Amino acid sequence: MEKATIGVVGLGVMGHSLALNIERNKFPVAAFNRNPAVRNEFKAGPARGKNIVVTDTIEDLAAALERPRRILLMVSAGAAVDAVIDQLKPSLEPGDILIDGGNSYFLDTERRIKFLAPDGLHFVGMGVSGGESGALWGPSLMPGGSHEGWEPLAPVLRAISARAPDGQPCVEYIGPGGAGHYVKMVHNGIEYGDMQLIAEIYDLFRRGLGLTAAEMQSIFNEWNKGELQSYLIEITAAVLGKKDELTGKPLVDMILDEAQQKGTGKWTSQNSYDVGAPIPTINAAVDSRIISALKSQRVAASKVLRGPSTSYKGSRQELIEAARTALYASKITSYAQGLGMLRMASQEYQYDLKPGEIAKIWRAGCIIRADLLGDIMNAYQRNPALVNLLLDEAFRKAVESRLESWRFCVQAAIGLGIPSLALSSSLAYYDAYRAEVLPANLTQAQRDYFGSHTYRRIDREGIFHTEWEK
Predict the structure, then answer these.
(1) How far apart are CA 262 and CA 431, in angstroms?
(2) Cα separation values, 317 from 322, 403, 419, Å
(3) Rounded to the nearest 5 degrees, what angle is found at the Cα of 399, between the Cα atoms of 396 and 402?
(4) Distance (Å, rounded) from C-alpha 362 to C-alpha 129?
(5) What whole-number distance in Å separates Cα of residue 285 and Cα of residue 259?
(6) Cβ atoms within 10 Å of 124's Cβ, excluding its own
(7) Nearest to 371 by CA among 233, 279, 265
(8) Is 191 a catalytic residue?
(9) 98 Cβ partners below 8 Å, 6+ apart?
């Protein structure tokens, strides 16, 4: 019997979609799931008639693979990954490769690399973005960890990944250690920010302008033809156009306003403080999801806490156009924050991340794919040492030309009492980053007053402390 090129452990939505994608690209697959019902359903359904062998044990899966074994783990992040590794390890040999394609925390990946290295086993932590459709037809892939493990995987991963408009595969070796999962974590943080920015524009349109779902669908469809073209704008229009089968109303109006999260956005926020990277747009998006979960409190507060009328009295078309401009400028600052965080983390963890190459593999397949990423890739090609996207001349001019409309949109939302945590945080980040002088001198003086934390002066070298109460 022909040996399989790669094994897939975990046949949930993403695992079975990736298995089918790999087989469709002419690589035989061995698959396993610990649940017999899931195995049998996959075997009798999607895998039937295909070059996929579904094994009854994890040991059989290892035996069905050519050497070096390549085994893709598509199981829940955390303890499940460690459990599968422990089950597989006795059946593996030096040179074999384990790939974790889940949303694992990057430091867990670092730990697993160290655990497996003494036995000569390679571990690759790989970010996978694109959802079910991307997994089946072409995801964006972010493999990191063992470079020796990457080389035998490259032909398979290049074959199954998405293709950018120029035909290049959306996969590249990211870097050592947990680099692949780190980049996926930040990708998801940017995704959080992007989604929240869109949601705030939707809220402004819905409550401020009183637009219907159909009217908003038309606007987002039109926006998707221009500079805002992206997967998230595209699906926003699709969501707004979906009718509820039970009531006939727009389905979005029937969905409870509680946004859940799996943790990757929160990890991005938490780690930003470790590496010293300011990412207020992403933080605002995480905060917004947390606030949304306080539904019962918000309902109670709405009955006692007053605010302004949410009905906008000015030109509807002027605000719609300002919102389009504000969304684009905010997206640029959000990407600037995320890519800046990658640069700082690369120094902190010695990952040797290349933001231009990362933008390149995000151009197709992934959730944050957008026309904007091609321009970002070009910015880093012009200057690989670019420390902040806003300092690229093209992006600087793009933001500066939109500042007036951006401020108008944020001011309108604030005046109406419509929360705009991400939009206003994006603008505040821009204003803070361009400020030659910030009020941190007062903060440092306060710290020295109550805690003798010292300060530096602008007119001479050295560290100083003042006895303020004298």
Answers:
(1) 31
(2) 9, 18, 21
(3) 145
(4) 9
(5) 10
(6) 28
(7) 233
(8) yes
(9) 71, 73, 85, 88, 92, 116, 121, 122, 123, 124
Q: Which two tokens stand for residue 108?
A: 């867990």
Nearest to 150 by CA among 186, 191, 180: 180
Q: CA 221 from chain center: how many Å?
A: 23
Cβ contact 116:84 at 8 Å: no
Give the global pTM.
0.94
**Which tokens hold the place of 234?**
């595209």
- How many angstroms separate the CA atoms of 90 and 164, rounded? 40
Q: Token pair 């869109």 is at which residue? A: 198
Which whole-number Å values give the CA distances from 52 to 2, 64, 65, in the listed order?
11, 11, 12
- pLDDT tens-digit readout, 2-45: 899 999 999 999 999 999 999 999 999 999 999 999 999 999 99
Q: What is the CA radius of gyration of the chain?
A: 25
The whole-angstrom distance between residue 250's C-alpha and the CA centroid of its chain comes to: 28
What is the Cα–Cα distance from 98 to 58, expressed in whole angstroms? 13
Between strands 97-100 and 52-54, the pairing is unpaired
Backbone angles phi, psi at 249, to 5 degrees: -85, 165
Q: What is the CB neighbour count within 10 angstroms for residue 105?
A: 19
Whether the Cβ atoms of residue 192 and residue 286 lie closer than 8 Å to each other: yes
Tokens of 460: 């001479």
Tokens of 309: 């009328």
- Angstrom distance (rounded) from CA 99 to CA 267: 21
Catalytic residue of the set 184, 266, 331, 360: 184
Contact partners, residue 418, CB within 8 Å, separation at least 6 = 200, 203, 204, 207, 208, 310
Most distant CA pair in the chain: distance in Å? 88
pLDDT tens, residue by residue, 215-263: 999 999 999 999 999 999 999 999 999 999 999 999 999 999 998 877 7
Active-site annotation holder among 191, 200, 266, 360: 191
The two three-digit tokens of residue 157, written as one number: 């991963």
Q: Which tokens belong to 134? A: 């991307």
Contact yes or no for 83/60 (Cβ under 8 A): no
CB-based contacts of 441, cutoff 8 Å, min separation 6: 455
